[in-house]
Design a protein that fits this description.
This protein is an alpha+beta fold and about 260 residues long. It has ten helices and four strands, in the order E-H-E-H-E-E-H-H-H-H-H-H-H-H. A hairpin with a 2-residue loop joins strand 3 (about 85-90) and strand 4. The protein starts with about 35 loop residues before the first strand and ends with a helix. It is an enzyme of class 2 (transferase).
Length: about 260
């Protein structure tokens, strides 16, 4: 969730790009037929944003506030009440990877995101599920864990996951620059959306999960992915995420004592 009080909706005649309270420049959006409810720090929100950029789809970004859920969000996702939610022609689509697949199917004239081969699609979905269900929870919990065996175990688990993903990259990329081959694909988006937080967690905890010794392929891939045009203006800077993480920790601490 973001701290800004503004929704960053495009106003007619606006000349400047909207800027969040953390100084992150957000793209000016258009086309009221496509809206995305989200928050700039969320890696899950970054997924549909990258997919929409790949397809060159203009959209309106509706920023959620820290600690609250808008009426539109609650109405659009009454089951989970979570971001992101894509609203296309008034119809809501929920869950980040479901949204990415929807974008790929609806705007099929743009570059393909999902692999064309059924087996490759299945493998990409398998690793995307692993990232969400196993790898990211371990990485996220490193910061919250106390010093000791628990924290050490989480660091080891996240590191082991990086080695597995290094191997997956070698097989999925088939010697090319991205998991998707010559261009960014489904698994690139699924994993790449966490790169900002990966670097922030490394900095906050004094650990190195992405390095030249154990994950040389992923290290080079991360550099290519982060600098790719559909991505580079979506991924927040590491220092901004570190700052946000500290604010969020204080907010949660205050919330737990209230």
């Amino acid at each position: 969730m973001v701290m800004s009080n503004s929704s960053f909706r495009r106003r007619q005649g606006a000349k400047r790009k909207p800027i969040s309270s953390f100084g992150l420049i957000l793209p000016v959006m258009a086309n009221s037929d496509v809206k995305l409810i989200g928050a700039w720090p969320s890696p899950f929100v970054m997924r549909p944003r990258i997919a929409l950029n790949i397809k060159s789809v203009e959209y309106e970004f509706l920023e959620e506030k820290l600690g609250s859920k808008s009426q539109l969000l609650l109405e659009s996702n009454p089951v989970h009440k979570k971001i992101p939610v894509l609203i296309h022609d008034g119809k809501p689509i929920c869950e980040s990877l479901v949204i990415v697949e929807y974008i790929d199917e609806v705007w099929s004239s743009g570059p393909s995101i999902l692999p064309s081969d059924p087996y490759d699609r299945a493998i990409a979905r398998f690793w995307a599920a692993y990232i969400d269900e196993k790898w990211f929870p371990a990485m996220r919990n490193i910061t919250a864990a106390k010093e000791g065996e628990s924290r050490k175990a989480l660091i080891e688990q996240a590191g082991e996951g990086m080695v597995l993903l290094e191997d997956a990259f070698g097989k999925c990329s088939k010697g090319k620059g991205f998991f998707g081959g010559d261009q960014i694909g489904y698994l690139d988006i699924a994993f790449g959306s966490f790169l900002g937080w990966l670097r922030a967690i490394e900095k906050l905890n004094g650990v190195e999960l992405l390095d030249e010794t154990k994950t040389p392929g992923l290290l080079k891939w991360a550099q290519r992915f982060s600098s790719h045009p559909p991505v580079k203006n979506v991924l927040p800077e590491t220092d901004k995420l570190v700052e946000f993480a500290k604010v969020l920790a204080k907010y949660k601490a205050a919330e737990s004592t209230s």
